Amino acid sequence: MSQAEASKRDFFISYTGADRKWAEWVAWQLEEAGYTTILQAWDFDAGAHFVTEMHRATQVAGRTIAVLSEKYIESAFAEAEWQEAWRADPDGSQRKLLVFRIEDCQRPGLLGQLVTEDLFNVDEQTARSRLLAVARSGRRKPSLPPGFPLQEPPVNATPFPGR
Length: 163
Hints:
The protein is α/β, with parallel strands linked by helices.
């Protein structure tokens, strides 16, 4: 990443090589929505020092997105990336660490304390909507009112008297 490219970015996408397709999809969706991202596959140039680039990314990005999978949980590099975001915002009040599960996996240790969003087992539009809703700051109140909750009749209705 050149000095000019190292200016502030909205998100650093933290992922493992096994999850590169998901990470690229996440970065693409965010950039299409007007956010700026740092993604290893797109921004770490050949010949650069990986750990230096990773360190720089955690410093210039306002928030980190963890693309969570079993492989991610096993990665020491990924752990360092999400832990830096956690260190900068241990109570989560600034939402510096956003976690998106891309498969049904555990959230061990400290990751288990975070509210996460699932992107798996849904269609692309639902996943995109979830991603962008979490990326926005503030409340996630829908733009349209919810439908009126009709009350279902009791399953074991008492028989009408006289029948």
